[in-house]
Amino acid sequence: MEIVKKKNSKIATVLVTGGSGFIGKHLIKNSKIKKWNIVSLSINKKLNYKNITEINLDIVNKKLLFEKLNHLKIDYIINLAGHINHYEKKKTFDTHFKGCKNLIDFAVKKKVKRFIQIGSSVEYGFLSSPISENITTNIKNLKSTYGKAKLKASNYLIKISKKTKLKYLILRPFLIYGPGQTINRLIPNIITNSLKDKNFPCSLGNQIRDFLYIDDFVDFIIECVETKKVYNEIFNVGSDKPIKVRKVINSILNITKKGRPLYGKVLLRKDEPLKLYPNLKKTFKYFKWKPKTILTNGLVKTINYYKRLNNKKNK
User: Fold this and answer.
1) Which residues contact 73 (CB under 8 A, 6 or more apart)?
2) DSSP 3-state helix, strand, coil percentages of the chain (rounded to 5)?
3) Both 158 and 223 in a single domain?
4) Do residues 189 and 245 touch, judged by C-beta distance below 8 A?
5) Both ends of the chain: CA-CA distance in Å?
6) Whole-structure pTM value
7) Tens digit of each residue's pLDDT (9 = 90 or more) over 162-221
8) Going edge to edge, which strands form the sheet with 243-244?
9) How far apart (Å, rounded) are the C-alpha atoms in residues 208 and 75?
10) Is residue 285 part of a domain?
C-alpha cells in the first residue's frame, strides 16, 4: 500500500494508531497537521478522509504489523490504540501492552525519529495529588488491568530507548473530554441524560478531577511531534484546574436547563481515588503549550455536539 503523499517530499510521515478513535479522529481532523503525511491504523473502521492512508490492522498481531508496514518510511509514531471495554481484561492487556510492545519493536527496526506514547494517569495508581512525573509506581500496587498494561508499556519503551537510539515521549493525560467521546464516559453520560431530561443516578460528586478539552490535548500532541529539543521524558497533561465532579455536573445542568441528578445513588469504586489531578510544572517548563479552552466553553461545544446527534436520530 502506497502512502497518500503531499506534494512536498520532505513532509514528515506520521503513523497514528487508533486513528478512528475519539482522540485519533480529532488529531487527524486538525488543520495544523496538513503538513504531515498521515498513515492511520484502526480495526474495521474507516475515516474516509482525503489525503490520508488508512490501514485496517490489529497491532497485537506482530507478524501482520511488520508485513503490512515494513515497506513504509515512517518518521513518527503516535500510539493512540486502545481497547475501550476494560472489563475485557485479556483484550485490554493485549492491546495496551502487547500491541504497544510490537509498535516499539517496529519503531526500532524502522529507525523512527520519535515514538509518542499516549499513556494514562491511571499509571500512577493511588498517589497523593497533585501527582508529579518523577514518582515511581510499583506495578504490583495497580489494581486495574488497564493501568498495569499502560505502565508495563511505558517501562518497556524506556528500557528499549536505553538500549537503542529510539527517542520517545510518554504523555499521561488526565480526563480528556469533548465532542465524539463515547457516552459511557462521565461528561457525555451526564450530557446525554440531561438532554433527555431524565432522572439519573450519580455519585455524590465529591471526587476532584482535572478535565482537559480534546482540542487542547491534540495541540499538545502536535507540539510533541514537532519539537526537536525535548525527548525521552514523561509529561502529565491536563487543564491545571482541578474541580469537583459535582460542579461539572451542575455546570452541564445550567447549560442544558434539563436533567435531575440523583446524587449519592452511585458508590465510588474501590479502585477510584477521591483526588486525582496532575502537577503540570514540568510540562509548562518544557513546552510553550497552555490549555486554551475554559471548562464552560468546552462543555457548551460538547453539549452542542450531542444535541445535533440527538436531532439526527430523531429525524
Assistant:
1) 3, 13, 110
2) 40, 20, 40
3) yes
4) no
5) 40
6) 0.93
7) 999 999 999 999 999 999 999 889 999 999 999 999 999 999 999 999 999 999 999 999
8) 243-244, 208-209, 275-276
9) 39
10) no
**CA gap 294, 300 in Å, rounded:** 10
The count of domains in the chain is: 2
pLDDT tens for 13-51 read 999 999 989 999 999 999 888 789 999 998 877 777 878
Give the three cell numbers for residue 161: 530507548
CATH of the domain at 107: 3.40.50.720
Grid cell 507540539 — which residue?
223
184 and 91 inside one domain: no
Max alpha carbon distance in the chain (Å)?
A: 58
Element (H, E) at 55: strand 52-56
State the DSSP H helix or E strand holding residue 222, giving kind and residue range, or none if neither: helix 214-226
E strand spans, 158-311: 168-173, 175-177, 199-202, 208-209, 211-213, 233-237, 243-244, 260-263, 275-276
Cα separation, 151 vs 306, whole angstroms: 33
Grid cell of 283 as nine digits: 510540562
What is the C-alpha separation between 130 and 153, in angstroms, rounded? 23
Name the grid cell of 299: 462543555
249 touches 207 (CB < 8 A): no
DSSP state of 131: B
Same domain, 245 and 120: no
